Amino acid sequence: MPTITIETGEGDLRIEFSPGRALREILDATTFRVRSGCCGTGACGLCRVQIRAGELAEPNPAERIHLSEGEIASRVRLACQLRPMSDLGVSILNRAPVSSWRALPGPSRTFPSLSSNLPGFSGKPHGAAIDLGTTHISLSFYNLSTGQWLAGRHGLNPQGTYGTDVMARLVAANECPQSAMVLRRLAVEAIGSAIREVATREGIAAEDVVRVALVGNTAMLALLSGRNSHLLLQPAYWTRHIDCLPESPLELRSDWGIHCEAAIEVPAPLGGFVGSDLLAGVLASGLVQNKPGALFIDFGTNSELALWDGESLWVTSAAGGPAFEGCGIGCGTPAEPGAIYRVRVSEPGARTFGNPGHAFLTSDVPGLDLELQTIDDEPPRGLCGSGIVDLIACLVESGKLTNIGRFSADVPNGKIVLLDGDRQPLLLTKRDVDIFQRAKAAVFAAARVLMSKASMGPKELQRVFVGGAFGHFLNRRSAAAVGLVPDLSDDAFELCGNTALKGCEELLMSPGSAEIIEGLRDKAKLVNLAQCAEFDDFFLEGLYLGGWADCDENRR
Fold first, then answer.
1. pLDDT tens per residue across span 348-390
2. Is 106 exposed, middle or buried (0-12, 13-18, 19+ CB in 10 A)?
3. What is the pLDDT of residue 175?
4. Containing H/E element for 452?
């Protein structure tokens, strides 16, 4: 793949890209964004860059309106109008302020126009789909007149200051009404902040947002609405419907600055801790259109699973904790620039990651040559979820870590020093391995319980869909090697990305999706793992760092 090299003032940053995308869109995926105010149409003239190296096409009419002949001669262009096809060297002349929100790449689909469903609105109608996750919040914006995607944002859920897992936040809200109010305000204001950021940068009037669809797990919806979050602390409600939807959208419209009569659709959770985000994910993945034996796993702090047996949709949730999102682990970090997302053992003569010359790091682990790659090739900050999976798989394969999660005798001080030198040491400790094992075992046990309820064995699994930001960079072979997912063929394994947001987009833009969601509810059978005696056995089995077949062998 070709590479964009950005002059940052502190060394060059190299970014691989797919030809055909606008330079502005490529830069938006990094922390080195260029100013903009027109959603990439070329109307504002703010996104100025200078091309230091590489082929450059003649400026188009939009660029000639905003750029002088001298600027054009010195290779200044508008990033939104430039679609590089080969390597470029770029200096950003008008850099945007650093934001807590990162741009999301646009989906490859276009929906039909919804203008006919918006009587009485004379402006430019826009819609927003929102996935309110435990660790991250994601938003996607559409032009309702054309069905075209406009922009997307992704950022941390600020409620994390009250705890990285849902139970910590629920306990805080239950023990102190003031904490419950703060938790609600944090989520509301974060969504409003993202909407304002998009409005300012993309030239979209927030008051033109006339439709909103929002999904989330039950705990996040209850904390957002301020209603009935205490019920989730009572086991009697872990398989029952909980009324946790906002009673009136009026306050949300005002807080978010959207149209005063905007329609806000928040589908109800399925029950217990299984929220509307799972239903949206099942919708987006097309799970029930598959043959029996299709398994869906939405990895996250509150991991949710669904198994289709041809007639029933078996669903549950597993409290895996935030390890899959790079949180709660000493060496962990979210999947952002600088996160180590890929780890592998160096092989003599093997091609390194990326293109020749593409940056990678070599670890400091004695007796084990590891190659590490960070997102956007930025200096390493820690390991995100996929990097942790890769690292543990490499350590198990090399014998540095046993299948029961203990470091071998030749690992000094009971910890792996991944990177040292003049940097702050990046360590993997026994505690980190324990946290990963428990998270992995919880998901493994949940999947095996669902399979037991559906009278299925591992050999009857035909297809696996992986959702969540964790799955974006996941190496299937590493995940299968440590028993995180079943070891199926490549064509039976699909990394779907943020399926909750994709399904929410369908709810926003496809009028018939709500009926499909209701149909999924009718097929669903909710399983409370706390009432399944076999869960503990499966959990202990899942602590083993080996493939599913190895776990079964150990059980026998």
1. 543 344 333 334 567 767 778 888 888 877 788 888 889 999 9
2. middle
3. 92
4. helix 430-453
Strand partners, 130: 139, 214
Determine the Cα–Cα distance for residues 307 and 448; give it in Å rounded to an integer: 10
The CA-based angle 14-91-76, given to 5 degrees, is 130
Strand locations in 110-216 (E): 126-132, 136-143, 149-156, 209-216
Percent of the chain with pLDDT over 90: 53
Read off the DSSP letter of residue 111.
P
Q: How far apart are CA 163 and CA 171, in angstroms?
A: 10
> Measuring CA to CA, which residue among 301, 367, 380, 399 is closest to residue 341?
380
Domains of the chain: 3-98 (3.10.20.30), 115-272 (3.30.420.480), 274-556 (no CATH)
Q: Which of 48, 55, 125 is nearest to 93 (CA)?
A: 48
Residue 434's identity, in one-letter code, is D
Say which residues have a Cβ less than 8 Å from residue 378's Cβ, sequence separation at least 6: 13, 31, 337, 338
Residues 496-527 pLDDT 10s: 889 999 999 999 999 889 899 999 999 999 99
For residue 551, what pLDDT band results from cuts at 50, 70 and 90? low
CA-CA-CA-CA dihedral for 541, 544, 550, 553, to nearest 10? -40
Closest C-alpha to 538, from 415, 436, 450, 433: 450
φ, ψ at 231 (rounded to 5°)? -65, -25
